[in-house]
Amino acid sequence: MTGTSIDAIDTAAVRISGRGLAARATLVGQATAALGDLTPRLRSAHRQDALTAGAFAALARDLALAHLAPLRELARVHGTPHLVVLHGQTLFHQPPLSLQLINASVVAHDLGCAVVSNLRAVDLAAGGQGAPITPLADWMLFRSKRTWRVIVNLGGFSNATVLPPQPVATSPQDSRAAWLAAVRGFDLCLCNQLLDHLARTRGAMPFDRDGNLARSGRSVPGPLQALHEILDAQRRAGRSLGTADEILALAAATLASLSPADALATAVEAIATTIAAAIHQHLAAKEPRAQAQVLVAGGGAKNLALVAALARCAALPVITTDQHDCPSDARESVAMALLGAVAHDGASITLAGVTGRTQLRVIDGEFLLARR
Q1: Domains identified in the chain, total number
Q2: How far apart are CA 335 and CA 136, in angstroms?
Q3: Is-contact 151 321, C-beta < 8 A?
Q4: Whole-prediction pTM value?
Q5: Alpha-carbon distance 217 to 223, whole Å?
Q6: Cα separation of 253 and 226, whole Å?
Q7: Distances 150 to 183, 215, 283 between C-alpha atoms, Å
Q8: For residue 114, what are the contacts with CB-CB under 8 A and spacing of at least 6?
Q9: 320: which DSSP letter?
Q10: Residues 153 and 262 in one domain
Q11: Can the peptide bond before residue 172 be classed as cis, meaning omega within 30 degrees of 0?
């Protein structure tokens, strides 16, 4: 998995037991590799800077080659994998168009195993947004029979999955279908893209480690309101976020008059306020908030200022996914492994209630639109 922060490759070795939606995932190892000089090249492509066809092909191959070291490391310890699942780097996302760049054949040849990639394509072909892609995996990993859970990814963009408790049904199969139909997921707003941008341009550091600089500053009301309006407009748009939503310059401009510490503190508060508003909206009139729990993951889960602000704004218990046997920095790579295994078993990996896609059908391992 490489995310919208475009700074590293996160890999996970995952043991899968069971098949399809009955599969269970156990994390057995992790390995990470820096993207190095690939970072500016990928960021340039993400900005839609012009590339020749040759340069584009080289970028896809070089990204795949960069995946080999951490994958080989996991293979040495845990054995040759049966399946590798590659998310690739999202360089463009404006449904129905989307591009997750990677040359999957390079990895398949090196590891000598099956590879699943381009995970969003079928959903997009069926009229869906192709994102968020993790809600099914979140349901498989974190669902609770009695408690509402909200899984919040604090990545380059923030997104959330709302998992209701198990509904009452006449049969286990009906219960699972009703449960999955009630799951909701949505993209929210800029998160680490903005915080890292401020750290690089205002604080002369790649990111605000542990949120220390933000914790030393204070949130300033005027800029806070201006930034919150920008982020909340993203949230209310109800779209999957991607290349067409690059508003870093606009968002950062609202904080231009502030010191680096105050700029980061204000950004943290605006992001937390926006995420909390989404949580409250989706839980309202469903369950008392005291019966809900927020699980955070992604790089922002290590930002103590951001997590504290989210807990305060949401007025809900906020913990990391580590407390549910999935390290916060592995949640997306574990989700990719689980989704890839489900896809390899011939089942759909996206939820119509989340992405808006039409009905899918599996015939001889290929996803086809079902006739209505």
Answers
A1: 2
A2: 9
A3: yes
A4: 0.89
A5: 14
A6: 10
A7: 10, 25, 9
A8: 82, 83, 84, 108, 344
A9: E
A10: yes
A11: no
Instruction: Tokens 């009139």: give the residue.
Output: 285
Side chain identity, residue 123: D
Measuring CA to CA, which residue among 4, 311, 279 is closest to residue 133? Answer: 4
> By residue range, what is the domain housing residue 41?
8-131+330-369
Residue 284, exposed/middle/buried by CB under 10 A (0-12, 13-18, 19+)? exposed
> In this structure, is residue 17 part of a structural domain?
yes
Q: Which residues of 220-230 are buried (b: 16+ CB within 10 A; e: fewer)?
A: beebbebbbeb
Question: Of 274, 273, 291, nearest to 283 (Cα)?
Answer: 291
Amino acid at 315: A
For the chain (372 residues), the mean pLDDT of every run of 10, in chain order, is 85 95 94 94 91 96 97 96 95 91 96 94 91 93 92 92 85 82 91 93 93 97 96 81 67 95 97 94 65 91 96 94 93 95 90 87 47 34
Backbone φ, ψ for residue 250 (5° rounding): -65, -45
Confidence (pLDDT) at 167:
85
Say how far apart CA 6 and CA 46 lie, in whole Å.
10
Instruction: Enter the tokens of residue 277.
Output: 């508003």
Residues linked to residue 369 through DSSP beta bridges, in sequence order: 360
Domain-located, residue 1: no
Token pair for residue 30?
Answer: 């992790």
Does a structural domain hold residue 30? yes
Q: Domain of 238: which CATH number?
A: 3.30.420.40
